[in-house]
Design goal:
The protein has a six-stranded mixed sheet with strand order 8-1-2-11-10-9. It is mostly beta strands. Helices cover 14% and strands 45% of the residues. The longest helix has 15 residues. The radius of gyration is 18 Å and the shape is globular.
């Protein structure tokens, strides 16, 4: 085995032993976003939404998912971009926070990506983006940056006393 092969083998072993996280990647307004895969419950094609008066403007309404009422959040509106118009590629990403489920309307779901810890940079509050406080980390995979959303920042449920 020559020196180059030995170096490549060491790099491959280093990559294999490095911690990885899995994210569901999706697109909103042409930007790549991610959610930690462990928080994703399922992905649905859009179904009829029942509107609810007097709620935050980014809450589109609720859906009935097998007998459970789930609020749907329009991420474009949550990011103060615009309202989302449903397209054939639009999806509801149903996520879990504590024991509660809620859905996120996204333009298009892409794929599950494995990202090594060294390619994840945790953000600070000084992001200039209007949705900066909702971004937990930024990941690099191939030629793309993925903005990873923090579930806790997206929605805050009222806790029962």
């Amino acid at each position: 085995m020559n020196e180059i092969d030995t170096d490549n083998q060491e790099v491959e072993e280093e990559i294999l032993t490095e911690e990885t996280q899995q994210f569901l990647s999706f697109i909103i307004e042409g930007e790549f976003f991610g959610l930690e895969l462990l928080s994703v419950h399922e992905i649905l094609k859009p179904v009829p939404i029942t509107r609810i008066p007097n709620v935050e403007d980014y809450i589109m309404g609720v859906i009935n998912l097998r007998g459970e009422i789930i609020p749907i959040i329009d991420l474009k509106k949550r990011f103060d971009i615009s309202f989302t118009e449903l397209q054939p590629s639009s999806r509801f990403v149903v996520v879990m926070k504590d024991d509660k489920r809620f859905g996120l309307l996204v333009d298009e779901v892409r794929q599950v990506v494995k990202i090594t810890e060294s390619n994840i940079n945790y953000t600070t509050d000084d992001l200039a983006l209007s949705y900066g406080k909702l971004i937990e980390s930024v990941s690099r995979i191939n030629d793309h940056l993925i903005l990873n959303l923090g579930i806790n920042q997206l929605v805050e449920f009222v806790q029962d006393n």
